[in-house]
Design a protein that fits this description.
about 200 residues, alpha/beta, 5-stranded parallel sheet, 4-stranded parallel sheet, 4 helices
Length: about 200
């Protein structure tokens, strides 16, 4: 479309700004050549159409757009690093919002997003989306003495920056501060307190 508009502009400029000193200039009225189909310049009949070069350029542009879309989707799905970092959405959990609970932020998050928890005590959580869950300003995850405090059920999760406390006490069920049930999970920079097992 941009190429067509540019071509039309220059054809119109040419046909409507003829050199008055050129030979036969008085015999030719100003004109705007047609882009597609029949036309006429002075006593000459013209026929305009797009040829191979235009269609190849158009195809190349379409393929480029498709390649960019595919790349962005792959990186969004965790198959790239730089693009994914640029596309990450950060959801903030705090007493002032926009989310007041980790569960609400998880419901709104897409795979690859980051959830930042700014302080406060929060109940046990199940991470069933590929997100980064980051605690700041003394954020606490408290299991209330029942079951696991954090259960990670999908690959690619990052859990960091929390005080994780008060798991259940059932040895047979191996209650833990953090239970990891998937591969490619990062658990770092957390403090565990009053948990039966640290991780399982």
């Amino acid at each position: 479309m941009a190429f067509t508009a540019d071509l039309y502009y220059w054809l119109r400029e040419f046909g409507n700004n003829l050199d008055d000193t050129a030979a036969l200039s008085s015999a030719i009225d100003e004109f705007t050549p047609t882009l597609l189909g029949p036309g006429k310049v002075a006593q000459f009949t013209t026929w305009s159409m797009y040829d191979t070069g235009f269609w190849m350029a158009s195809l190349g542009s379409i393929l480029l757009v498709l390649a960019v879309v595919i790349r962005v989707r792959r990186e969004r799905a965790g198959l790239g690093v730089l693009g994914a970092a640029l596309l990450v959405t950060v959801l903030v959990v705090s007493s002032a919002g926009p989310y007041t609970s980790i569960e609400a932020a998880l419901d709104a998050a897409s795979p690859g997003d980051t959830i930042v928890v700014r302080g406060g005590e929060h109940p046990a959580v199940v991470l069933d989306k590929r997100v980064t869950l980051r605690g700041e300003q003394g954020a606490v995850l408290d299991g209330g003495g029942d079951g696991d405090v954090v259960r990670i059920e999908v690959p690619g999760v990052v859990l960091e920056g929390f005080l994780i406390q008060n798991s259940g006490r059932n040895l047979q069920q191996e209650h833990a501060g953090v239970t990891v049930l998937a591969a490619d999970v990062v658990v770092r920079d957390n403090v565990l307190r009053e948990v039966l097992f640290g991780t399982s």
